[in-house]
Amino acid sequence: MKDNITSAFIRAVPKSDLHLHLDGSLRLSTLIELAKRGKVKLPSFSESGMRKLVFKETYKDLPEYLHGFMYTCAVLQDLDNLSRAAQELVEDNLAEGVRYIEVRFAPQLHVTPTTTVRDVVAAVNKGLEAGAKTHNVSPKVRSGEDLPFHYGMILCAMRRFKKGMSPYYADLLRLMEHAPKDEVYAAASLELARAGVELVREGLPVMGFDLAGEEAGYPPADHWAAYQYAHNHFLRKTVHAGEAYGPESIWQAITQCHANRIGHGTFLFAHEMIKDPLIKDRKRYVEDLANYLASQRIGLEACVTSNLQTIPSIKSIVDHPIKKMIDYGLSVSICTDNRLISNTTVSRELGLIVEHAGLTREHLRKLVVAGFKGSFFPGSHNDKRKFVSAVLARFRTLESSLIPTRSRQML
pLDDT tens across 88-99, in order? Predict the structure, then answer.
């Protein structure tokens, strides 16, 4: 790799993951164990079998990619299972040098007839807290040799849903059976935004609100009321946008939903995807949008492997806009999206980008720091600044110890 950026160095430096779905990031061994215990039928009860049949290196299309969620969600209808999955997620991130994560999930998807949104969020937080505590009381952290681990939770509303997805969605669809579907979806997102604000008041680290699911045909503006409520109550906001639709979706997320960050933003520069006939100069529109994002430091949560697996037009990292995003001066954070389903880690994502996009160590340092700067950190702004400074200091210390002196002098 360029500048002697080794895989060991990437694994050692402190990292973040701001776009991390809990239900897409279980340990495969845990999924199989919980499925056996809960009598959930899997295509195979061996890890090799599930890798061959479900969780692959490559997928033929988005439906095949999403198929795995059917199994992960099935085992996460239990509070103890949610806590365990969350704790193991922290442990797995800690093992590869990640020191900050924002775990996103759709609580309404995991509600059962005997549990509430609050129960689900509290269960996830219990697991995250347990995983973080073990690390944060370690001698290395106490002595300052290592960084503490911080986390936050992001609550996801769904652009659309069906009765079979959860008892909550089934009840809401039944209660509003005569209402247009977009009003039902909007009602669910508004209720979740209100719940999120209440949970923050209770002291739970709910750091943000998100909108996930099928993008084309289900615009962010449909959920304006939920985002306005979150905005009015200081809850930070991110939106899945520009993943399966063009630049207009990103602009709508910013203007209608007050987005602080954009999930994916893959088609930011795809001027040919603009559909509004009133936009005459499409290239200028894209340029203005990119400059606006950069100047306002509205972050992009880039998930390269996930995009390669779900967007047929992107056949390799060379075809991915990640390098253009970085060169444009955008605030880019490198994320996994789904550690299990995409079979990846933050270290792997960074390694692929460094190798195939030709990034220097300076690029890597900026990417690492951007992830922490762009976070919805669970503390004061001054606390966040101190943590970012500690991250940068740790990066430089590791740079000094893991990169040969001659290579450093050549920079």
Answer: 999 999 999 999
